Amino acid sequence: MTNLAIKNNLRRLRFDAGEITQAKLAQKVGVTRQTIVALETRQYLPSLELAMKLAAAFGCDLNELFYWENMDAARTKYDLTSKNT
Fold it and tell me: Which of 13, 15, 36, 76 has its CB surrounded by the most CB atoms within 10 Å?
C-alpha cells in the first residue's frame, strides 16, 4: 500500500519565525491552540482557508507548509494525463 499521508512543516516554520508559540499563531489565524497542536501532530487536516491563512502568516507557499509524504506516488495516483485514467 502506498502512503499518501499529508505532512507539514508547521513546527519548523514556527521556530524559524522566532519560536512563535502555538497560542500566538492560533490567535493570529483565528483558531484555538489545540487546533495548532492537532495540525502539528497530524491528527487534523486544515480547511483550505486555514491552510492559506497559515501560509500567509509565514509568508510561504502552501506546498512549503503542507506536502505529500510521497509526492511521486501522489502524482502517479492522481495523474490526469495517464492513459490508464
Answer: 36
